[in-house]
Amino acid sequence: MSDLSDSSLVQIKxxxxxxxxxxxxxxxxxxxxxxxxxxxxxxxxxxxxxxxLDVGNQVLKAAEMSALRDTLSERGILLWAxxxxxxxxxxxxxxxxxxxxxxxxxxxxxxxxxxxxxxxxLWVDRxxxxxxxxxxxxxxxxxxxxxxxxxxxxxxxxxxWGRLRGVVHAGAQGNREATVRALDxxxxxxxxxxEIAVAPARRDAPKPEIVHLRDGRLQAExxxxx
Length: 226
What we know:
The protein is α/β, with parallel strands linked by helices. It has two domains: 3-95, Cell-division inhibitor MinC, N-terminal domain (Transcription Regulator spoIIAA); 110-222, Pectate Lyase C-like (3 Solenoid), CATH 2.160.20.70. It contains five helices and 16 strands. It has helices at residues 3-9, 28-41, 43-46, 62-74, 87-95; strands at residues 10-15, 18-23, 50-54, 78-83, 108-114, 120-124, 133-136, 139-142, 151-154, 158-164, 167-170, 180-185, 189-192, 195-197, 209-214, 217-222. The strands form two sheets. The protein has an eleven-stranded mixed beta sheet with strand order 4-3-2-1-5-6-8-10-12-15-16. Strands 7-9-11-13-14 form a five-stranded mixed beta sheet, with no helix packed on it. A hairpin with a 5-residue loop joins strand 5 (108-114) and strand 6. The longest helix is centred in the N-terminal third of the chain and has 14 residues, at 28-41. It is elongated, with a radius of gyration of 20 Å. The two termini are 34 Å apart.
């Protein structure tokens, strides 16, 4: 199965507490293969994920659902909810102890991508508003602003293709080589590893900047995106 067809059959959104995967309209065997292909292709992205699965009108029996749950579990993925328009599928989910309703406020469209330093990255293609928290063990790329009250926590580096005015913590697992880059760097609070700083009030025009650790201190320099 091609990547294009997998992409059209498997749509991924971020939720506050995990991932929402929405499956397209096809036979269950095709959809299951597309989902597992996506998992294999982006293993580091899915590793440790809490997954809610929207299967639409699919009518699934206990054997099919439990087999998928076990297969995902073997890959380090927790299937905790199944959403469906089918009463049969909903009953099956409840019988297996899976949730059938989730809170979908403020979804963030995301995808796994190749990012900084050739490591896996989380790609967030929208502005993060107050109250939104993004946490990922690798690098994080935000195409949009990070507003005051929003928070980004990354095990690796963070790039904000916009205004960074919220809280950002790069190298959250102790990576002191991590960096933070933004087109307009005015965070409420910025951390790299265990070093923390509050940005002073800006007195000049905003410009792209990169922050890194040098001699135990956070330092900002001009950044030329290229």
